[in-house]
Every structure is written in structure tokens, then in C-alpha cells.
Amino acid sequence: MEFGLSEDQKLLQESVRGTLEKVSPLERVRAAAEKGETEAADIAQALADLGVFGMMVPERHGGMGMALLDAALVAEMLGRHVAPAGFIATAVMAPLAIAGAGSEAQQEKWLPKLASGEAKAGVAIAEAASGAREGAGVTASGGKLNGKSLFALEAENADIIVVADKAGALHLVSGDAKGLTRIQLTSIDLTRGLTELQFDNVEAEALSSGDAAATLRRMVDAGRVMLAADTLGAGWMMIEKAVAYAGERKQFNRVIGSFQAVKHMCAEMAAELEPCRSLIWYAAHAFDAMPEEAGLMAAHAKAHTAEMGRFVARTATEVHGGMGFTDLLGLHYWFKRIGLDRQLLGSPERLRHEAAVLQGWAAAD
Fold first, then answer.
1. Report field, pTM of the whole predicted structure over 0.85
2. How far apart are CA 60 and CA 150, in angstroms?
3. CATH code assigned to 212-358
4. In this structure, are residues 50 and 19 in contact, taking their beta carbons and an 8 Å threshold?
5. Most CB within 10 Å of its CB: which of 32, 96, 100, 231?
């Protein structure tokens, strides 16, 4: 069996890459980070012009109805350019939630707006994906939400937010709902926004027209594959930067890339990270074609890519020597992006446990 990208998929990825090279160079990323701008309007508009926000929206609602693999190719490019722009929540997880569990009226109201980029969406499902934390969790009663959700993705300026409660039900909350408090959290990665949401009798619309539990699982699986792809893109950029630096930096009148130890470091990074590509592609393929394998493969893909990403981030920084830690080179933006990707929607340790449970090797928590 041969498995590779179609010509259309290659063209899609190259189009996104070319656009991001223009609108999200390191100088733009640095400027956004210094201003605390995790949603750069110009970058988001460029992505909207490409149509990427409609990738996972069904065609009947103005989207393209594409596969998760297509979205993973975009996520890889966003990680490669550490773009300060929302995608995982707005373009992937929220459309899946609304299309999978929303009523016809909810779909008609929001999916076309998400597809066009007119509306932004956040997701607050960290407790369902990463485990409960003390003091966190949302309860639903009588159409009102109470409690707190941590590490909501792309929710700081969202028009709507998909929220999972403690029972696993999904709700749609307006970004300007009365009683909703949004607190922007500070993380190591200044290119991605994380928000604490506090609910005080906040009105919410239940997403209950489909199987909410199954939809929540699909949201988590899709988000994990996107984060793995993001790490893949960031990791390969770090490898390329390390190789380029090794070909320029001289010691003892020789470029350091000619030293066997440095060659081995660069080769090992590539050898460890590249197999993650096929793992991510397979996980994305399974999401649409083999749903019975989707959860297991998403867990494997994110856990393994997170481990290899951390190895690459450390090693690429070491190839740069002391310069690797400076803001001048900006290598830390990719380093920190990989670090946050590792923890969002489940750490490698948690995901390996989930994989063991799915295969009957361990008892569920």
C-alpha cells in the first residue's frame, strides 16, 4: 500500500506556506509577541482569504468539507511559522462540534460565519481532554453554566465558545454573554492565546441534536492531531535553522557542520522527527476513514511527536551554542511553541495511559 499526498494537498500546503512566509516572518511574530497579540488580524485575514477557516465546514454551509489530513497540512505550516493566529479551535474543533451536535438552526447561524472568517470560535474542553484540576470544571443546569474552565483555546476574542461541562455535554456560549469573565493566561508561548473562563449563571445553548459524547471525543482527537502537526512544523523549522547555522558558523577555521559530532546531532534530529509525519498522516486519515482507530492513533501521534519535538527543540538549540538562547535569533519562539503543544489537550504521559486503556492494557481512571 502506498500512501502520500495528492497533488491538490501538496498545492494547498505550498499555498499556505507561501502566504505565511510573506505575512508571518520572524519580525512579525516578534512584534506580535511583544504586544501580547496572539490573534494577529493581518495574518488571520490572509488565512481567511485562502479559505482555510472553511476546511472542516460542510459544503452545504459554505465550507469545503475537507478531511482532517488537509487541516493537518495547514497546522504544520502554522507551526513552521509560529503564526500568531487562531486555527485549531476556529477552523477545526468548533466546526466539528457544531456540525456534529448542533441543531440545524445553530449550524445555519454559525457555520457559514466560521467558514468565511466573519466569526471566531474558542473551545473550552481542557478538563475533558487533560483531566480535572482542583477548582476547575463547569456545571450546567436550566440552560445556565457555572464554574470555571482553564486553558480555553482561542477564546480571548471569540464570538462564540464551545464549552464542555463535567458531564461531557457540549454548550454554545456567546462571547459577550452576561456573567462570563475571560482572563487571559500567560504561558511560555506568546504566539498562542490561552484563557481562563469563569461562568456565573451564563446563558448557554446546548449542542444536543447529535451525539454530544461522541462529538466531544472527535473534537479532542482532532485537536490532538492538529497539535502534533503544529509540533512537526515547528520542529522541522528548528532543524533547518540548525543545519543552516552549522553551515555558516566557524570554529578552528572550519564550519562547525563539518565536525562529526554536529553532523550526528543534525542527522539524529531528522531521523527522530521525520517518522512522526507518517504517524500524524495516519492518525488524520483514521479520523475520517477508520473512526474505531481514531482515538488511539491521535493519542499515539501527539504523545510521540511531543517527545520527539522536545528532543529536536533541545538539540537544535545546542547546535546554535550560546546564540540559541538569545532573542536575536528568535529560536525560542519555536522552542516554546513545541513546549506548549506538548501539554495542551493531554501530556504524553496521560496520552500513553489513555492508549493503554483503549487497548485493554490498563484500567481507566
1. yes
2. 34
3. 1.20.140.10
4. yes
5. 231
Choose among 103, 123, 160, 167: nearest CA to 141.
Answer: 167
Cβ atoms of residues 331 and 316 within 8 Å: yes
Q: 247 — phi, psi (to 5°)?
A: -85, -5
Domain ranges of the chain: 7-116, 121-206, 212-358
pLDDT tens sequence across 40-92:
999 999 999 999 999 999 999 999 999 999 999 999 999 999 999 999 999 99
Q: Which fold has domain 121-206?
A: Butyryl-CoA Dehydrogenase, subunit A; domain 2 (2.40.110)
12 CB-near residues (< 8 Å, 6+ apart): 70, 73, 74
